[in-house]
Structure formats: structure tokens, C-alpha cells
Design goal:
This protein is of the alpha+beta class. It folds into 2 domains: 4-106 and 182-253, P-loop containing nucleotide triphosphate hydrolases (Rossmann fold, 3-Layer(aba) Sandwich); 267-390, OB fold (Dihydrolipoamide Acetyltransferase, E2P). The protein is built from 11 helices and 20 strands. A 6-stranded mixed sheet has the order 7-8-9-4-10-11, sandwiched between helices. It has a 5-stranded antiparallel sheet with strand order 2-3-1-5-6. α3 crosses α4 and α4 (137-151) packs across α5 (166-178).
Length: 399
């Protein structure tokens, strides 16, 4: 197995458009029918990935996550050798592999579209790479059947891909990868073509698979639920830059900036742009809508260590951390979404939409009815769930 080290990795796609068009994009002007570009454009070309530094431990499961166009798949393809590295160094184990062909990197890749040979059976698809290596037939047979057993596809070995469901095809694609005993397993949005139920099932299958095979996983997705459930660590990307690296709990509880705070968590964190951070008697508190909430001791210590001064802030509070109260910030329910054990409320308050996730487990039927659209509510929140961000930079003041 292997560690993977990326040092100052950069990917630049050379300019292929006319100078006039480049200048228009650079100034942020949008032509009709042209997608707006957030990535940096230089004289050399479009910078898709920049200043990417990451150490991935042996047998670690790392997830690259971010919106479309953030550079995550490009980074994965550079690790695979399918994209040339413009600048920087890539190591698999102790070996510099910038100029090593994909077939010699001892990696395996699972693609979004399965990439199975339609004319071959499941067995032959799984065995194909081993046959190219001239692996003995008995070894091939053993490896293919072991992988099929792990993924519960033994009964499909004689079928062709067209006779399989999407989930079964993805299992075959994963099985084809693991028969090679790769040092690094790369997965590029492997579940995005599946429906919601199959995605949930396959997430569980990948977690089980990870426990059964000893390899390093690098997984790309735009789905933050996949990232949170699968990864030992998450790498959150935006516009080619790493925004934050941490465990799922770290990025959820301590987002580095507004982007991470808004990207991780469903429903999205509420942001209040008219809040203030104040200090009285040596204690930090937040003021919002006439309500003052003293921050927790942990947050007090972090803000004090950073010598944070009282200031206007963007206050972040997750929907599940807002509580209904008899007094607090007043609002009116615009939309009430019953989700079974909870109800999602969209409340008009402080001149904006505020989302609350309210558990219905201990509520009476009358109390649930009182949360219908058009009804008034009041809400509050505790000091330990507040996230305070610099209004100019968007960076968490506790960071």
C-alpha cells in the first residue's frame, strides 16, 4: 500500500481562444450562451488547480469535495496520470511519479460512467487487466472470484453489462479495480449516476469494501453527504484552491470560512449579516435582532487567543441548532415541510429567510399544527452553536 503526497501541484490548461474573448472573461463579462468562469485566467491559460498541498497516509480514505468546476476531478486525474501536472511534485510512496505512465503507477480508477466493455462478460471485464499482465489463469480465477464475493456479484459473472442494473454495473467496475490489488484506489464520482436509494446502498458497500481491502482511497464527489459518511478526512475545494482539510466532524463543527460553512451541512447554515460581536466584562457575546447571546467557554478562549476585537460580523447558526422559544427573535412561518421525525421551517425574520429543523418526537399533534405556514414563531440559539465570521474576509474568527 502507499502514501500519496502532493506538493505545490498546479494545473494550467493552455488558452485556445482568441485574445478578445480571453480579455472579456478576465474582466468578468459574460457572453451570451457562455458559462461564467470563476477560475483564474492568466496569460498561460486557465488555472484549474493551484497551490495544492496534501499528505495522504497509507490506507487512509480521503474525499475531495466541492462544487462543479472546483478542480477536484482534475486533481484526481493528475494522480492517475490522465492529466499532465503543470507544476509541483506528486509522490506515490517514496516514488516521484510526475512522468510515470498511468499503467506503471500501480493505481486503479473507478469512473462515473462505469467504463465497462459491453461485449465482455462480468468475468472477462474483471479479468481484463490481469490478462494483459499475462497473469496465470488460476490466479486470475482466484482474484476475480474473491472480488466478486466481496461485492456480492458472483451470480452475475457470466452476464454482460447490458443485463445489469446501474448498481450492479458499478459493483463490477469496482471489482475490476480491486482484482489488481492497487496501491491506491481512485474513485471519480462513482455514485452520481445512481438513484437516491442505490446511492445509499452503494455508500454502505464502499464502507464495507474499505474494511476488507488494504489500500489507500482517494474519492471525488460533489455530494457533501458522501464526503461526510465516507471520508477519514475531507478536502474541500473551491475555484482550484483547498479551502479546508479535516475530519468530517472538524469541518462541520469548525468551518474555516463562509464557503465551507455553507457547503457542509444540510440544510445549509443560516447566515446573519447584521450581527455584532461584542465584549463586556471580559466575555464575548453576539448581538442579533435585539438578543444578546454569550459565547461558550471554548469559543471565548479561541477568540481571546486570536485577540479578536468587537466588530460587525456574519453570524452562522445551523438550522438544527436553532430552538423554538417563548421569547427571542420573532418571525412568521412561510413554509412548513414535514419530514417525519422533524419539520423544516422556513421563517421570515430579520428581513431574511431563516431555516429551522425542529424535532417532532416529543411534540403533540396540536403543537405540530401550530407550526403551519402563516403562524408566528419565536426562536433562539445557544452560545456554543454560534459561528462568527469576519465580514470582509469571510474567515472564521476562531480559526
Amino acid at each position: 500500500m502507499a502514501t500519496v503526497t502532493l506538493k505545490n501541484i498546479k494545473k494550467i490548461y493552455p488558452n485556445t481562444e482568441g485574445t478578445k474573448k480571453k480579455k472579456k472573461i478576465k474582466r468578468g463579462e459574460e457572453e451570451q450562451g457562455e458559462k461564467k468562469v470563476n477560475l483564474q485566467i492568466t496569460d498561460e491559460g486557465v488555472v484549474a488547480v493551484q497551490e495544492f498541498n496534501l499528505e495522504i497516509a497509507d490506507k487512509e480514505f480521503v474525499v475531495l469535495v466541492g462544487p462543479s468546476g472546483c478542480g477536484k476531478s482534475t486533481t484526481l486525474r493528475m494522480i492517475a496520470g490522465l492529466e499532465e501536472i503543470t507544476e509541483g511534485e506528486l509522490y506515490i510512496g517514496d516514488r516521484l511519479v510526475n512522468d510515470v505512465p498511468p499503467k506503471d503507477r500501480d493505481i486503479a480508477m473507478v469512473f462515473q460512467n462505469y467504463a465497462l466493455y459491453p461485449h465482455m462478460t462480468v468475468y472477462d471485464n474483471s479479468a481484463f487487466a490481469l490478462k494483459l499482465r499475462k497473469t496465470p489463469k488460476d490466479v486470475i480465477d482466484k482474484k476475480v472470484n474473491e472480488a466478486a464475493g466481496i461485492l456480492d456479484i458472483i451470480q452475475y459473472l457470466e452476464r454482460k453489462p447490458k443485463a445489469l442494473s446501474g448498481g450492479q454495473r458499478q459493483r463490477v467496475a469496482i471489482g475490476r479495480a480491486i482484482v489488481r490489488d492497487p496501491r491506491v484506489m481512485l474513485m471519480d464520482e462513482p455514485l452520481s449516476n445512481l438513484d437516491a436509494k442505490l446511492r445509499n446502498q452503494m455508500r454502505a458497500e464502499i464502507i464495507k469494501l474499505r474494511e476488507k481491502i488494504n489500500t489507500t482511497f482517494i474519492y471525488v464527489t460533489h455530494d457533501q453527504t458522501e464526503a461526510m459518511t465516507l471520508g477519514d478526512r475531507i478536502v474541500i475545494m473551491k475555484d482550484g484552491f483547498i479551502q479546508q482539510v479535516g475530519t468530517p466532524q472538524e469541518v462541520f463543527n469548525h468551518p474555516y470560512n463562509l464557503f465551507v460553512a455553507g457547503f457542509i451541512g444540510t440544510p445549509q447554515m443560516n447566515f446573519f449579516h447584521n450581527a455584532k460581536l461584542v465584549k463586556a466584562n471580559g466575555k464575548y457575546a453576539v448581538e442579533l435582532g435585539g438578543m444578546t447571546v454569550e459565547l461558550s467557554e471554548e469559543k471565548q478562549a479561541k477568540l481571546a487567543a486570536n485577540n479578536v476585537e468587537p466588530q460587525d460580523i456574519v453570524l452562522g447558526v445551523r438550522p438544527e441548532h436553532i430552538e423554538l422559544a417563548k421569547s427571542g427573535i420573532d418571525g412568521k412561518v412561510d413554509v412548513s415541510e414535514m419530514m417525519g421525525s422533524s419539520v423544516h421551517l422556513h421563517v421570515s425574520a430579520l428581513g431574511q429567510d431563516v431555516v429551522l429543523v425542529v424535532s417532532t418526537m416529543n411534540m403533540t399533534a396540536a403543537e405540530v399544527v401550530a407550526l403551519a405556514s402563516g403562524n408566528p414563531v419565536s426562536f433562539t440559539f445557544a452560545g456554543h452553536v454560534c459561528h462568527v465570521f469576519n465580514k470582509e474576509t469571510g474567515i472564521n474568527l476562531e480559526a
